[in-house]
Amino acid sequence: MNRDKAQVRQVLDAVKAAGRASLTAPEGERVCNAYGIAVPQEGVAASAAEAHQLAAAIGFPVVMKIVSPDILHKTEAGGVLVGVKNADDAAKGFDTIVANAKKHKADAQILGVQVQQMLRGGQEVIVGAVTDDSFGKLVAFGLGGVLVEVLKDITFRLAPATTEDALSMLDGIQAAEMLKGVRGSEPVDREALAKLIVGVSELVSDFPEIAEMDLNPVFASKDGAIAADVRIVVDFAARKPRYRPAEADVLSAMKRIMQPKAVAVIGASAEDGKIGNSVMKNLINGGYKGNIYPIHPKAGEILGYKAFKSVKDVPGEIDTAVFAIPGEFVAGALAECGEKKVAGAVLIPSGFAEVGQHAMQEEIVAVGRKYNVRLMGPNIYGFYYTPANLCATFCTAYDVKGSVALSSQSGGIGMAIIGYSRSAKMGVSAIVGLGNKSDIDEDDLLIFFEQDPNTKVIAQHCEDLKDGRAFAEVARRVSKKKPVIVLKAGRTPAGAKAARSHTGALAGNDKIYEDVFKQVGVIRARSLRDLLDFARAVPMLPTPKGENVVIITGAGGSGVLLADACVDNKLSLMPMPDDLDKAFRKFIPPFGAAGNPVDITGGQPPQTYKNAVLLGLQDERIHALILGYWHTIITPPMTFARIIVEAHDEMRAKGIEKPMVASLAGDVEVEEAAQYLYEHGIPAYAYSTEIPVAVLGAKYQWARGAGLL
Amino acid sequence: MNRDKAQVRQVLDAVKAAGRASLTAPEGERVCNAYGIAVPQEGVAASAAEAHQLAAAIGFPVVMKIVSPDILHKTEAGGVLVGVKNADDAAKGFDTIVANAKKHKADAQILGVQVQQMLRGGQEVIVGAVTDDSFGKLVAFGLGGVLVEVLKDITFRLAPATTEDALSMLDGIQAAEMLKGVRGSEPVDREALAKLIVGVSELVSDFPEIAEMDLNPVFASKDGAIAADVRIVVDFAARKPRYRPAEADVLSAMKRIMQPKAVAVIGASAEDGKIGNSVMKNLINGGYKGNIYPIHPKAGEILGYKAFKSVKDVPGEIDTAVFAIPGEFVAGALAECGEKKVAGAVLIPSGFAEVGQHAMQEEIVAVGRKYNVRLMGPNIYGFYYTPANLCATFCTAYDVKGSVALSSQSGGIGMAIIGYSRSAKMGVSAIVGLGNKSDIDEDDLLIFFEQDPNTKVIAQHCEDLKDGRAFAEVARRVSKKKPVIVLKAGRTPAGAKAARSHTGALAGNDKIYEDVFKQVGVIRARSLRDLLDFARAVPMLPTPKGENVVIITGAGGSGVLLADACVDNKLSLMPMPDDLDKAFRKFIPPFGAAGNPVDITGGQPPQTYKNAVLLGLQDERIHALILGYWHTIITPPMTFARIIVEAHDEMRAKGIEKPMVASLAGDVEVEEAAQYLYEHGIPAYAYSTEIPVAVLGAKYQWARGAGLL
To answer: Fewest Cβ atoms nearer than 10 Å: which of A38, A172, A604, B634?
Structure first.
């Protein structure tokens, strides 16, 4: 699209030169015109006579508004007249508006009165833009009007937004139906509205000094989308660009850190109970095969390993240095690591920004930058990378290998991850503590795990994203290949910042995370258990080939709850075709319900479950199965589990793989059966109808976001 | 309030006599006037001259509308003129409307043209009423306009509604802020609006033949609430009243059934694997102390108990008869039970309505009614009542005694309840299967458990309520004394019935359950796990004395997630008073955060946790505590658990009891610690920050509903 950047630059330069923080309406319209954002016909009258002439040329009715850099809220100043019906009224209106404005603010500089084509009909919407500390420029869309403000029904996307992003915004508000034409009104021109949104998003991206922007209202109708009022707030103060190494450098450093050939333990100790002792033991007992170099000022050897006074004394290369020394000594030891060209420092020590010692943290960050040593932490438990049998942490060793890479910002949540993983026998590739995130953060991990063949799913807990923009850009790419699941804590609204636009006032921090995650294909976990359940089950499920989900249940009651959960998790229950209905009915009693859920009824032998599941796996119209088991004497839990695994394996041998999850209702033996199913590739849950469906829903959400469905 | 019932009766009689299914506008207004529902000044003109005169008397502008029993949708027929500005236009308008109406429907009976005061300004709202199959008359409230229809932002209450109910409706819509005055508009007259809602709710309750009603729009402003348009749909077909025994009879029968002195097992068997054998064994091995009478056509004794051919042959009284015979023999045996004056039949057999055998079910219902034998089921697993060591079921015995009474409509869900209860060591007073609910249903159970001293909390799973009105009436009373938790399955929208009003079209079945549960103080569980978690924890928590919740956490990360969960569960984090802040700071490191959450930081010894918890329990401004534990070497999980129990017990000895829940983040040992805490009265959860807060939230929701807060 043609963008007249010079035009915008000229306007902004003039605003800057005048020391103003916002644009006048005519300036705003010039800027809009330059980016193909439709605005009404209009002009500025310097006198009543000019208003008369201008209004007659535009046609009636017109709207008249004061033009003054000193009056931001025009209506309150009596500076707006709507529905002016003829040229004489326009002339009189000019005088009224100017008089009101002077009364409102005697010294206001009055540049004239804007006379504008009055727009009516269609749907009033708001399009805007804000600048977020973490995500940078965002474009916003919502319906206009007071009610929508009350409901906060507004949606955000990273700017610049694609046409596809913009169209998704139209469907991304609660009141989306309004745009499709209700009660006989005609649907709006979606393409025109999307074009306008894209224009705004490109404008604010091209000109970072545009801090906030409101097009409010935009009249959207079947004939197009025209912005009736433009408000642009600027901020010419230069923003410090974030430090961000090139991706190739990130990757090569992260590979050395996560898969080191040699690890130094700074502050290694032979004394039980010391952190430096626990780290040594975990490295050794964890089975790490690389070199281990304990660093200690005096010791000759620690736990059988030759010790060194400094990393600089170590003969070979060191990739990763795990720090187990008090915080005040970190900077010095880090500089030595820098001289030794260590790739990364795992900073277990605390006592930095988390306790208000910001200067101390800035110091180590500066040392790291100077020597190009990447920092993990400080204030962390360390990390595990199971493919290398690497437990670079003072917590207990962890050895259930698998394909999930987890990380946490908080140590407590990290411990919960470790405990749950062990308890639920969840195989992990890595568990990483990020702590204060002075340097390495979520996007660095994404870059490493993206290419790590041992990792199939990435699950992260975070309280904030230091650089949401960087995260989003990497996550958008990575999530196309591997599911990225994030538990974003801290949803309680923080003190809202003073905003100078409606869009700004409506921009809740959490809503932005919500929308950006969706935009870049990140699955948002709603709770810690969800994060853990999704991490455990999602990598195990094959990718579905379509949206048709079928429930096969022995318990009618479970079927109803499973169907509810499908609605909650945006899964589509396939309407059962007649021939398939008949085929299912062959296996089930006459009073069983085929349809969907397929209710095979409770008193059935194992073979009924198996036949129904085999049919479900074989029929190509069905893309995923949800099983509901009911504990009976005829089909005890382990019998059910074994026969389902048989069916699953038989089909897999024939090349048929579909996601399948199970809900088990019964006495305590169902726990063992659930574990058996899980160990054989079928996520299964005792006493829950909602978790199995939620994990399937997460897999679907990922597959849709990655464009695989 | 004065209600002119005679006036309404007269109107309805006329409508019935005319064979009409809806009221004309003037009829609707007469009905409204009779119930104090404000409507605009108006009159009906029979000629253009009358319209001229009437309009002049009312004042301008006026609205004019066709009056015809044959035209329901007046706007579509060209039968409405708004904003008529003077008397001449009113005269012309009369002719236009009549001409349009005749064009629309040549044979329409035209009664005249209504001339009405035109209302403007304020907030347009809709007030209506519907008749629900299960709940009967419901009154509805929402904002007017298309957007609200799209968002389905409407709320329901059982009619008649109290003024308090009506006021809660104004706060019960998403867009509630709109009524409080936004962007400088004035708040509406809440009392006037509530009065109008109450009027509608009483009208439809007093006159059941009013099937649906719409006041749309109602203009609500600071000056009052006036219904601008009235639509009333009537249905004179008599509704069959539901069978409902007197409450005293329900209670005396339920007491005999649940706490029987003697139980007969019809179809008792000595043969392993038979249902009649399992029931006998469960009764005997469960430790039931009353008389057990096996009924069998031939056997002399079964499992050491003298057998009888029929219940009629048993010498003493029988309270409860458990049926373990094929469905087709139930009716006959039931009649014998009737003659024997058995209080209740526990109908395990299936093969009734659930497989389409409705006649068979109707037959047993008729027999039960005839002899006054209450029926549990058919198609159930039976029931447990642990205070009497009674396992009247073919499932495995259950013996963990406690204070939760659970029930399920579905057998599968019942098995999940048993399994979870056993696994989580949840103490229960009863588990009851309701199955087809041919007779005994949720409200019968409520009536029994209300007075049962062994039951503190009632948790029920249901797919429907056969008589929602009866349930609601009982639940409203019982929930004031004991928490009632319900998992209502089947939220997927069923085929919407054809509705003749806006209110009807907006009345989603699930929304009605949601609102009525709230109205009568029932806690709605959102999932099976929620039902089970709430049932397990809520009875253990003392009732809070106020809304001030404080989080005390060793893990900052857990604190953030716990605070999020407080927002989700509508709990109020107390703003920390300065003196209390200082008091907490005495126990925690200088960099720890007092405030709320109180972050004692991770590396603290057990005494720090204990001191903080003691302070939290002792200070009267704090009403509930949420603990976040972080597994460290200094304070291992069981050490934490023991010290918290100590603090809890010390305070209880001093008469201080506050609800306290815990979230445990750590390695697998936290599971044992969580169980220990639970067993000592503190609901605690490993690897979850959301479940502890959700159960506390459920307790608060109950306490608020019961008027205890």
So the answer is: B634
- A387 found inside a domain: no
For residues A87 and A179, membership in a common domain is answered with no
Whether A666 sits inside 8 A of B423 (CB atoms) is no
pLDDT attached to residue B242 = 81
Same domain? A66 vs A161: no
Q: Where are the beta strands (DSSP E) in B349-399?
A: 374-376, 382-385, 390-393
Query: How many beta-carbon contacts under 8 Å exist across A and B?
Result: 233
Which DSSP letter does residue B240 get? Answer: P
**A447 and A369 share one domain:** no
Measured between CA atoms, the residue of chain B closest to residue A425 is B668
C-alpha–C-alpha distance, residues B283 and B301, integer Å: 15
Residue A498, helix vs strand vs coil: coil
> What's phi and psi for B264, nearest 5 deg?
-105, 145
Per-residue pLDDT, B26: 87
Name which of A145, A420, A628 is nearest B687 (Cβ-Cβ). A420
Same domain, A521 and A547: no
Containing structural domain, residue A424? 400-540
Mean pLDDT, chain A, rounded, equals 93
What pLDDT, on a 0 to 100 scale, did the predictor assign at position B503?
Answer: 61
Q: Which of A492, A558, A589 sits opposite B564 (nearest CB)?
A: A492
Whether residue A686 sits in one domain with residue A636: yes
Tell me if B183 and A146 make a contact (CB, 8 A cut-off). yes
B-chain residues near A150 (CB < 8 A): 175, 177-178, 182
**How far is Cα B609 from Cα B606, in angstroms, rounded to an integer?**
5
What CATH number is associated with residue A662? 3.40.50.261
Q: How many CB atoms lie within 10 A of CB A685?
A: 25
pLDDT band at A67 (very low <50, low <70, confident <90, very high): very high
User: Does A493 have pLDDT greater than 60?
Assistant: no
Q: How far is B485 from chain A (nearest CA, A)?
A: 16
Region class of A425: left (phi > 0), else alpha (psi between -120 and 50), else beta: left
Whether the pLDDT of residue A494 is over 60: the answer is: no
Instruction: Kindly report the pTM of this predicted structure.
Output: 0.90
Query: Which pair of tokens denotes residue A217?
Result: 């209202």
Q: Report CB contact under 8 Å: A149, B182.
A: yes
Domain count, chain B: 3
Query: Does residue B496 register a pLDDT over 80?
Result: no
Among the candidates B117, B148, B182, a domain finishes at: B117
Q: Residue B494: what pLDDT?
A: 41
Q: What is the pLDDT of residues B366-383, one digit of tens each?
A: 999 999 999 999 999 999
Cβ within 8 Å of residue A430, ≥6 positions away:
A258, A383, A384, A385, A386, A405, A406, A407, A449, A455
Do A146 and B185 lie within an 8 Å CB cutoff? yes
For the cut 60, the answer to whether the pLDDT of residue A499 exceeds it is no
A445 lies in some domain: yes
Domain assignment of residue B16, yes or no? yes
Per-residue pLDDT at A496:
36
The residue to which tokens 């004035």 are assigned: B186
Mutate to test the interface with B, among A125, A147, A425, A536 (most CBs of B within 10 A): A147
B691, part of any domain = yes
